[in-house]
Amino acid sequence: MTAKTYCSVGNNVCDINYYCPASGVLHETCQKCSIDIPVGYGCNCTAKKSIKNCIECRSRYCLKCLPGFYTNLTRCLKCTQGCKDCKSEYNCTRCEDGYIFNSARKICTPKCFTNTDCMDRKGKYCNLITNQCESCGPFCQWCISPSFCYSCISDQYTLTVSGICEMGCLNLQNGEYCKEGKAEPCFEGCTSACKCGEQKNCATCSLAGYCTSCLPHYQQEMFGACTQCS
Q1: C-alpha distances in angstroms, 186 versus 18, 99, 212, 214, 216?
Q2: One-character DSSP codes across the chain
Q3: Residues 149, 144: Cα–Cα separation, whole Å
Q4: For the whole model, what pTM was predicted?
Q5: Looking at beta carbons, which pairs linking 118-122 to residues 24 or more positions away fall under 8 Å?
Q6: CA-atom Rg of the chain in angstroms
Q7: Exposed site from 125, 146, 173, 222, fewest CB < 10 Å?
Q8: How far apart are CA 117 and CA 101, in angstroms?
Q9: Which distant-in-sequence residues (6+ apart) come within 8 Å of 101 by Cβ?
Q10: How far apart are CA 102 and CA 109, in angstroms?
Q11: How far is CA 153 from CA 55, 58, 159, 197, in A?
Q12: Is 80 exposed, middle or buried (0-12, 13-18, 19+ CB in 10 A)?
């Protein structure tokens, strides 16, 4: 394109590898495609027809898109959430602020700062060194570290006072706890929760089915309920 060519929103007359910067009703000069193309505009890969967010064309196809987009040759598609630049939907190369790059999976994951940030992903806790949600121990649903669980994935497992999920016991009676898959009478210092009606996290239980003491890291509330210490 040697002479200036003017274009408008409804009349994109720009040549290949040029784009129309017009907005509204004003006519603008066709511009050479470059990385400075604003988001939402795009290079003409065929005469008078643009590919939105494309910055480089060859033989009718888009070879390169603006940062934050990737090309499938006929369109520029947005990178996944948290990804600042990518080669494809599942191949991120840079992350936005607040995200961490997972080099093995080529994705960006949100940084975490407390375990609460990982609550939407069961079986995860926040590693405060890496600021990433990482896996709890085996059979654990919620944990504060990989070695200390406070809720198992199902009633099939028993949570020990040391924060480990072990194989549970079937048909425990009130006043019994599960030790290595076998029912044993509860006592102060038992290694897992005492069966006590519908109440959880008990160490010992009354004949009426109320907690009389709680496991470590739990405190007794009204009506004998044991709740996690704050």
Answers
A1: 80, 47, 11, 12, 14
A2: --S--EEBTTB--PPTTEE----TT--EE-EE--TTPPBTBEEEEETTEEEETEEEEETTEEEEE-TTEEE-SS-EEEPPTTEEEEEETTEEEEE-TTEEEETTTTEEEE--SSGGGGTTSTTEEEETTTTEEEE-STTEEEEEETTEEEEESSTTEEEBTTS-EEE--SSPPTTEEEETTEEEE--TT-SBPEEETTEEEEEEE-TTS-EEEE-TTEEE-GGG-EEE--
A3: 6
A4: 0.64
A5: 122/153
A6: 30
A7: 222
A8: 17
A9: 92, 94, 95, 107, 108
A10: 7
A11: 49, 54, 10, 20
A12: middle
Whether residue 224 is predicted with pLDDT greater than 80 in this model: the reply is no
124-182: pLDDT as tens digits: 999 999 999 999 999 999 999 999 998 899 988 988 888 899 999 988 899 999 998 89
Closest-CA residue to 176 (of 152, 147, 197):
197
- Kindly report, residue by residue over 70-106, the tens digit of the pLDDT: 999 999 999 999 999 999 999 999 999 999 998 888 9
Find, among 156, 166, 206, the residue nearest to 186 by Cα.
Answer: 206
